[in-house]
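Worked example (supplementary).
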Amino acid sequence: MDAFLLALPLVFQPNVLAVMALAAMFGLFVGSVPGLTATMATALLVPLTFFMDPVPAIAAMVTATAMAIFAGDIPGALLRIPGTPASAAYAAEAYAMTRKGMAERALGTSLVGSAIGGMFGTIVLVISAPQLAEVALQFTQFEYFWLACLGLSCAVFVSTASPVKGTVSLLIGLMMATVGIDITAGHPRYTFGIPDLLGGIAFIPAMIGMFAVAEILRNVMSTAPVESPRLEHLFRVFQGVGGVFRRYWRGLIRGSVLGTAVGILPGAGGDIAAWVAYALSKKLSKEPEKFGTGHVEGIVDAGAANNAALSGAWVPALVFGIPGDSITAIVIGVLYVKGMNPGPTVFLQNPELIYGVFITFFVANVALIPFGFAAIGLARHILRIPRAIVWPIVLLFSMVGAYAIDNSLFGIIIMLSVGILAFLMEENGFPVAPAILGLVLGPMLEGNFMTAMIKADGNLLGFFERPIAAVLGTITVALWATPLILMALRRARLRGADERG
Amino acid sequence: MRFNDALIGCVLILFALVAGYATRDFPQIPGQSYGSALFPRLLCGGFAICGLLLIRSGLQRRAANGPWLDRDDWARSLAGPLTLAITVGGIVFYILVSEWLGFIPTAFLMSAALLLRLRGRWISSLAIAAVLTMAIHQIFYGLLLVPLPWGVLEPLVF
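After joint prediction of all chains, the assembly is encoded as:
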């Protein structure tokens, strides 16, 4: 409680609130321009927030992403082009509502649903994080090693249809993390005699490359202007929304719970939460035949789920230092660069910082309603901004941002190399989320692994001796063994069928 | 531009071999039989296994008449790759010359080239590039005190 009171003045001061308001506008803009994602908003904010104190820096990212995830629904509903991947699950449904003249209802539902979902995720975060942190304080290298393994494994299996490609992406991230002076022996690895690489691959330029440059390269090839319909009755946005939620309150709760849970899972964020929530809503609905024809029910679930996931992702990030999605991966990377190691000790040493994050989340989700309403009103103008102008702006901003971290051109070289790599990866069906998680968690994974190895004297069974470590380890091993066993079973069955046939 | 999985698998195995070979002179932790090389070697092992799995799935697709290289719409005409080349070329140009030419001229030339390519209107593109360059310069040099190089403009400013 003391920490809460200490945190209040940290958030409610003019400059922090001003930063949040600017971040909100930035997030709404980025979210409503198709191709610019919430993750990219975070990546582009980093060079600016890098120069701020921790609380306004985190407040800016929290606000911008919450706004961006909602704003992605705007072009989804008006043009059937999701503004961010998190809106893709129900863009077709929302657009069908627009075709029926119910654009205001669709956007109003997703706006209020987003705010409620985000608030729900925040409450879970506020209640669970301090409790989990108490448990996490007991953890040793063994538990942290397995926890990191488990998180990275989730990222591989959740983020893609092809576990092999997800694994490759993860390995690329982990391999990038080994560059530089090795922490256990102090030996430079893979530095090719380049002094700039001794400290490792600079994290911030790498993620600007991964999330901004790769996106630019993908998008510059098609910048056809889009025509946006006009909203006739802006002030009807909230009309009837109460009725929608009274009718589908179960969906609202379901979407919020599901979204928070998916957010907590490392590697899966708002986009996956929305897909799962939409599918589940259709499955459990009394009128599944209406889905896809402009039916609001799925939008209730999925609209709440993606914002809930955003808050949920902060639970493992704050408690264990293990990011729940790409956005928190960036935030954690930035905290490391700033010399703050996220994990349970932050709850003891800087509790006001943690409560600052909590308060920021509440403020951001409340502010979502008026800011989101304004964005819906301005949507037509935002969507008319030619994307041929947006991409050069984002590119120059990214380059200067990558340069500004160390005032070194080497940052831009890293940004470009990683950007091209990520572009080729996505073109070939390799997800990038596991790579960014690998890059962030690599040093922690290896550090804990090596210390645990020394503690256990090289005996791998030592990794299973402590009870929690044993449970986490067993789950991790089972997670990897299951697809292999299933594959073997399927093959055995096929062979059996061949022999019979 | 999608490559057949088998080609990617070969690249991964090659990478695993080279990166694994590079660990040969990494030191051990005193008193232990492992050291800095252990973790990278495990990763290389992972790359090699994934590489083999990708080669297998790639060859299966190849057997079903899948192409070695699937060029999507954008790669069929020259327009897409040209835009891509101008974008990447612009960044490389910036890396190479910004130190002596200075941020303002380099960033202006780079963004003007890209804007012209994307929009095709001369005067407005040059104007947008100029405004963009000055705005970014003002934010990062003026506000955040990032020492962007002045380059050839230095005698004019100081």
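Two points are worth noting when inspecting this output. Chain A touches chain B through 53 residues (CB under 8 Å). Chain A has a mean pLDDT of 86.
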